[in-house]
From TrEMBL:
SUPFAM superfamilies: RING/U-box. Residues 4-61 form the RING-type domain. It comes from Apiospora phragmitis. Transmembrane segments: none annotated. Keywords: Metal-binding, Zinc, Zinc-finger. This is RING-type domain-containing protein.
Length: 231
C-alpha cells in the first residue's frame, strides 16, 4: 500500500467500530491527486493554504488545477475543498458561519439555535447577529436565508425571519410563533439595513427573488409578501 506523502504513514484512518463498543477499526483514507501522489485527507488539508495559492502538489509540485483526484473516491474535485480550508485557515472566525450555512441548507433548526446560544458571550467568534447575516464569499455571497429558500427549508426560513428581520409578529404562522416561544428565542430590534431579506447574493438576488425563480412550495410565502423588505 502507498504511504501518505506528508506523514509517510499508511493510508488508513482509525475509527470507532459501530458493532463493537470500545473497539476501533481501520478504514482507507487515501486521496490521490492526478499526479499520482497519495495523501491522508487531513494531511492534504494541512497544506491547503499553499496548495490553493500555488495549485501544485505539495510533494512533487505538479499542477493540480485540472487534475481530478482519485484514491478512495475517483474523479473527486479536491480544489473546492482545498479553497474552503485555505479560506478558513485565514479566517478562523468564519468556521461557525460555514457550519451555520450547512444547518440552514439541511433544515437543522435545533442545531442553529444551539450554535447561536454557544456564541453568546464568546468573544473569540463572530456575534450571533453577524452569524445570522453572514454572506459566504465561497458560495456566491449567499446568506442562510438564501440557502433555506433554495432547499425549501421553511422552518429555517421562519426562524431567520424571526431573528433577523423586523417582520411583524402577526405575520408569522402560529406554528412558527409557538416554536420560537418554546425555544425561548427573543426578538431584537432590526433596522432596515440589517433586515436579512434585503441582502443580495453575487447575482443581485434577494431571498425573495430566489424563491420567486424557483417556484414550488415556498411560492405561498412569496405571495404572502413576508420575504419582501418593508413587510
Amino acid at each position: 500500500m502507498s504511504a501518505c506523502k506528508v506523514c509517510e504513514e499508511p493510508l488508513l484512518l482509525e475509527v470507532e467500530d459501530d458493532e463493537n463498543e470500545g473497539q476501533t477499526q481501520q478504514v482507507p483514507d487515501d486521496l490521490q491527486l492526478g499526479c499520482g501522489c497519495h495523501f491522508h485527507w487531513s494531511c492534504l488539508m494541512d497544506q491547503a493554504s499553499d496548495l490553493a495559492m500555488s495549485l501544485k502538489c505539495p510533494a512533487c509540485r505538479a499542477q493540480v488545477a485540472t487534475n481530478p483526484a482519485g484514491g478512495v473516491q475517483d474523479n473527486f474535485d479536491v480544489l473546492p475543498s482545498v479553497t474552503e480550508e485555505a479560506y478558513l485557515a485565514a479566517n478562523p472566525e468564519a468556521r461557525p458561519a460555514r457550519a451555520f450555512h450547512v444547518m440552514c441548507s439541511e433544515g437543522d433548526v435545533g442545531g442553529i439555535v444551539e450554535l447561536l446560544q454557544d456564541l453568546e458571550g464568546d468573544g473569540t467568534s463572530m456575534s450571533p447577529g453577524k452569524l445570522l447575516r453572514y454572506q459566504d464569499p465561497l458560495a456566491a455571497n449567499k446568506t442562510g436565508l438564501h440557502l433555506a429558500v433554495e432547499k425549501g427549508q421553511e422552518e429555517v426560513l421562519w426562524l431567520l425571519l424571526w431573528l433577523a428581520s423586523p417582520l411583524a409578529n402577526e405575520l408569522f404562522p402560529d406554528a412558527a410563533l409557538a416554536a420560537a416561544q418554546s425555544m425561548g428565542l427573543q426578538r431584537s430590534s432590526t433596522s432596515s439595513a440589517d433586515d436579512i431579506r434585503a441582502f443580495q447574493d453575487n447575482q443581485g438576488r434577494t431571498a425573495e427573488a430566489v424563491a420567486s425563480s424557483l417556484g414550488g412550495t415556498l411560492m405561498k410565502v412569496v405571495e404572502a409578501g413576508v420575504l419582501h423588505t418593508g413587510a
